[in-house]
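Everyone, describe these structure tokens:
***
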Amino acid sequence: GMQGLPVEDPHQNSPPRTYDELLAFEAKRRTYYAETMSSVLQELHAAVKVLIEGKHETSKACRLVVASSLASQAYARDMDAIFQDCFVDDSCNIVTNPWQQNKLMKQRDPASILENNNSEGFFAGSGLECELLEKALEIQSSIGNAFADTTKHMNENIVKEFKEFEHDLFDSVEEKMEVAERLSD
């Protein structure tokens, strides 16, 4: 046989020893699983903490993307208002109200000025006949359109993706937190 192993008589019946051994084995098993469960719970709580921090960082990134998109949208609107000559009133005060901007556009519209029998016409004396000013207005319009296109792309793709990711992450974090709470009880 194998050396070093105790040889037991299979016919010998010793229930107290077996019962004591089972109790000792069960105590060791419970201690081991309690320690393992404690370790797993610590790891789970650490993972949930990382997920919560990731959730906050994702929210912050989402707000940054949305804010950038809104700023681009506002800039595009303002550039278009400059191009339409309704961004500032006659006293050079900024006009942000769309109703007031429309009123200014109608007042400054070449067709309406000509209808009011202004024989000099819209461009006379305004400097708009200047090629440099025309180029500046074209650039303003081009920049405004670029920002409008950027905003559209951001809203349709990036913002939408971020919000979906944020929602999925939040659901995942909530699920992990519920599991951690149930295991802690």
About this structure: The radius of gyration is 38 Å.
